[in-house]
Write a structure and sequence with these properties.
By secondary structure, the chain is mainly alpha-helical. It has 13 helices and 5 strands.
Length: 283
Amino acid sequence: MADENGTHHDMSDGAALIEAPAPEEVVSGELSEETAADVTPEAMADAADETAAEAPVLPPEIEAALVEEPERVLSAEVKATVEALIFASPDPITPKMLCRLLAEEPKEDVLAAIEALKVDYDSRPGLQMVEVAGGYQIVTRPELHDWVRRLFHERSTQKLSVPALESLAVIAYKQPITALEIGEVRGVNTSGVLSTLLERHLIKIVGRKNVVGRPFLYATTKEFLIRFGLKDLNDLPKVDDMAAALGFDPPAGLLEQSPREDVLPLTEADVAAGLGEDVPPPE
């Protein structure tokens, strides 16, 4: 088929001749001047309000559940400060004291720093972080004690005698207890031994027994827990287990506990004389 200019068009495949769209029908990506004039800021704001009104409103509890709190990141400075305080403290330092010293920091961050340090020191070969007497200390590992002792070989070490250790064990398991009761368990007089334990701040006078003569009652101290690496008295080994491991029969009176109603508090005169503290009683 030929047009008026003599150009032939192939229609052999039955394809229909497609008429090109008129120029005015071509879709453009730009708005015409008339349409653009109709889009005003007020019209756009009205459209946005209509869209917001059509959006579903969620209950407050669901909206709150969808909002995720940002994960708390432990400050390296807080962790380093807690580590320095534990290391520098001569005595076990409690979480309460750490929170008091770092009062400007959130309590949760201080406690998190303690837990992070415990994990860190679990893998350290030379030092360990231990919980003693309700607080924390950074100390050398037990397997290295012989090497550490070489550093202090010139320092004279005063060891407790066997009678002192026996008396201390009786007090630890039966506290509060009188000197007479300690002697009954051990079978010997303990007056001299008790003075030594008081001087070492391992025991103290905590009251009087409600019997004739009202004798002093003795108990262990915080220093005792520190020296023996105990968190509290519940960490003491069971008497039966210890006797079985060491192969001896515990004394008959070691498992008996003094009735609490027999314990009298110290009088004002006793307190004024310094009793109840980790000091020897007056002569």
